[in-house]
Amino acid sequence: MLTLHAINALDEEQFTTQLGPLFEGSPWIARETWPARPFASLAALHGSLIATVHGSAAERKLALIRAHPDLAGRAAIDQELTPESTREQASVGLDRLAPEEFARFTRLNSAYAERFGFPFVICVREHDKHGILAAFERRLVNEPDAEVETALAEIGKIAWLRLCDLAADETSASVVLSSASYGKAAVRLVKVVRAGARHELVDLNVDVALEGDFDAAYISGDNTRLLATDTMRNAVYALAKEHPLDSIEAFALALAQHHLAAGPTVTAARVRIVQYPWSRISAAGAPHEHAFTRDAGERVAIVNASAAGVEVQAGIDNLLLLKTTASGWENFHRDAFTTLPDATDRILATNLAATWTYHTGEHDYTSLYQAVRSRILETFTDHYSPSVQNTLYRMGHAVLQTFAQVSKIHFRLPNKHHLLFNLAPFGLENQNEIFHVTSDPYGLIEGTLERRGTSR
Questions:
Q1: Mean pLDDT computed over every residue of the chain
Q2: Is residue 374 part of a domain?
Q3: Is 456 contained in some domain?
Q4: Exposure pattern of 206-217 as b/e (b: 16+ CB <10 Å)?
Q5: Which domain holds residue 191?
Q6: Are residue 150 and residue 107 in the same domain, yes or no?
Q7: CA–CA dist 275, 278 (Å, integer)
Q8: Which of 85, 138, 352, 389 lies in disulfide reach of 81, CB 3.0 to 4.6 Å?
Q9: Do 247 and 322 lie in a common domain?
Q10: Residue 174's pLDDT is what?
Q11: What is the DSSP letter of 142?
């Protein structure tokens, strides 16, 4: 593989020989770019080559487009393609089409050439054969001038991928892609389970994130082994049709395992599901069969899956808790900037978020979720709270002491301040009754509890 330093050192003939094949049948582009040396990076080199193309006469641009072979055309059958085109067409299976696929390519090649007077050009390494056929159909309705620009843009993509195959940019040798993930977020899904006149409602927000060998896509723009995020979204809806959603942990497991198998280079999948709670509206003294009202406090499930194993987490989010007494904050450290007085009887309010991790194994996730949630709420009520920190510890300790299935639990507890309002200017005494509720800024307390020896 050539280095950028070696490319900059090539004479005109060597430069043309090495870089001429980047543009199909058009070595003049490399030759006329050679005087622009030295290039600071491969991207700068590619930019100069493209500038040469765009600075050329219209006739030369058309000649460049016409130098490209038809896709799955006569040149391919007769084995007359350049080595670069041969590899590219083979990479998406154009050398092994079914008879009906070959007939469709032949028909589209003819229709395109008749309309525009040059062959259809597309960077095949960014598509599969179905995507190429769809692009054929879509671009057939373009205006000729617009299609020339589209073809030149595709030629630029082809040249970039060929350049990345040919050369290494030592200027970026110390820069590595140390981690990468991608996925589909905020997939909103509602499922109605119809059992006669009585309906059940499940309302979810699903995030899917994948990790794996994605270097080719990030570094050189090669998407050929990347699962589209649109496909991930479709999988969420399709699997929801067949999968019961009474346990969002089980559904998250199914989604994670599906995407581990579906992505060619996927090594890990993370699925996070938030379930919005709905309860039946009471009408005529009974719960209505198909009318609901939204409640507070979302249920959360998170699954991390890889070849090494599966981790299942559950949780609560956005659950507003408040008690009007049995809470204080006193004897805290003071310095020159302290203005807050001690409080022995205050409102304690928080918007609770909690996430807990289950030990490996099969569990009744829905029953466990309900039981852990109840234990947290009970503990919130059962003590005088000298601080949010202490209440956090008590709730986590209670969960770990009660449920052997839980290995650790994390809380995020913003302190929703309720401050006594000064009524003295109005001649009134505020006997811990009238409060001003603040939004920003607020205290934020977080903590994780786990059994000794189970840290990860």
A1: 93
A2: yes
A3: no
A4: bbbbbbbebebb
A5: 181-450
A6: yes
A7: 9
A8: 85
A9: yes
A10: 61
A11: S
